[in-house]
Give the backbone structure.
Amino acid sequence: MKHEMIFLFAGGIALSSASCSTGPEKGREGSPRPNILWITCEDMSPRLSCYGDPIALTPNIDNLASQGIRFTNAYSVSGVCAPSRAALITGLYPTSFGAQHMRTLSRTASLDRITDPELLAIPVYEAVPPPQARTYAELFRQAGYYTTNNVKTDYQFHVPITAWDESSNQAHWRNREDKSQPFFSVFNIMETHESRVWGHASKKILVDPDDIELPPYYPDSPVIRQDMAIHYSNIMRMDSIVGTILHELREDGLEDNTIIFFYSDHGDGLPRMKRWTYDSGLHVPLIVKFPDGHAAGTVNDRLVSFVDFPATALSLAGLDVPEYMHGRPFLGDGAVAPREYVFAARDRMDPALDCIRTVRDKRYKYSRNYMPERPYVQFLPYRDQMPLMQELFEFRSANKLDSVQMLWFRNNKPGEELFDLEVDPHEIHNLADRPEYQEIKNRLGRALDGWIELTNDPLTLPEPELVKRLWPPDGVQPVTDRVTFTSSGGKVTMNSVTRGASIAWQKNEAIGGSHWMLYTNPVEANASDSLAATAIRIGYLQSPVKRYYK
């Protein structure tokens, strides 16, 4: 078992330029760069009418799908938000830079109820990508885009000041001063989040609980049907919010030059779904609409991973994809051949330690349980608030779960799991020990081995040791070196000696404000000008602000 984390990128692959010679306002063929709009919802599998689900009415998303491409094989890299978002913002697998545990930036409040010293020792830290890595938002800013995020981040590192022009609940493409400037805007809709199942329990139920088809790992009870009906109702409310955002885009006359993505950050926020590498935790809806109607109303079954999203967005904008990214563009000029496999991981979830690695092709899924001695259901107080989960505990205590429903409540796991998803979509029947499936298992196992090696996966390395690898030698967070200024010919050059640092700056009356410019080229400054600048490498502390006076 590997207990070393030697970053794949430590040799230093040069960061590819994210801007093109045609300038920030033009694409590769000289046409205006497209705007890009990402609409993200939370904790939702493809429970949409356009995906064939008969329960929730989702007219706005269905209409978007009728005008765009509906992907049927899109997958998160984790069944929970923070590692998934770490992949989305960087184009890197979370296991490659210490972003795999849920979470790194804060301990769960439940730790006051834990006595295990191993769990009490969980550190608070930031994931640290290789020095050449940037958020995709910064790459778009380099290319002249106005970037906004409304509002969730949760990247496993503090949001670098260089990432977004705006990241707040007021962030919007409408806030850019130059209305001709291309934008990249993200809207995160919380309506379907796991917490809304108990948080919206008093709201009107918009679907009939009796119409819902329960998965075989749930017993049939009014409580379970009620919580699933709440989830479906939240999906319908989320669809209405999507409609509002799309209406604003049309109202501003921007629909004809905007590429729209709709997706969820991982699968359903329900027990045995969220946090797991079953398809119920990884499979997400993905719809992409082009302004010219390209491939409108089509269905695409290629395998797509979250690590592919940043590379694809850059490709669609006519920008170069950095070599360090693990992701592959699946649309745009840089699109590559479809991938054969997608990969995922489960690690610590709040206080619950675990380590699972998973690979999937279009039909089969293979998982390795690196902590088979640990039960599937561990103490997880956030999840356990849900009435559905409490009902499962009650059924277990009363010996009312059948053999399929008891599988998730086993006290240990098999070392390997293999499922035929075509005939067993709920991943109930483990084929790993069946002789007739050994060739398939071995093929997927080799693919998983290659991915683990590619990402220098630390697997079961204790987190305190992981932190020392991220912040060598003693696990103390480094501080990005201050910006230095050099003046020549009426221009000021800025630099930080910290490898991989980006620089943000302000000038004159803007100094002290909330908006920072991204430094890409020397700044013009005369004798009366003053400048302020700060440097940040992702995962490090930001440098103190330094001022420059001519």
Summary: The mean pLDDT is 93. The chain has twelve helices and 20 strands. The radius of gyration is 24 Å.
